Input
Amino acid sequence: MAETRTAKLFKHGRSQAVRLPKEFRMAGTEVCVRRIGRGVLPEPIEHDLAEVAAIFAEIDRQGGANFIPDGRPEQPAMPMQHSYRRTSAPAERGLDYGQRA
Output
């Protein structure tokens, strides 16, 4: 019979998450989730290079190769970063509020 353990449920933002016991941890950052009856089955996502190549081949077959035929357009230049460092006193900045014009 398959090994069974209890796992903790918790909230992360508006999502519910499961803290898996150490012996049930999976590699990667995502899992495939299936509902089976009243239960939920998380399974590791395993992609091999042939499967990834097949996905890109299907994209090309459906016309994805012509998505941006002339390449990515030139991006506008980023605005200059300004430093708004303040000194501690107005006099250090060459300002004297006590003088009149």
The mean pLDDT is 80.
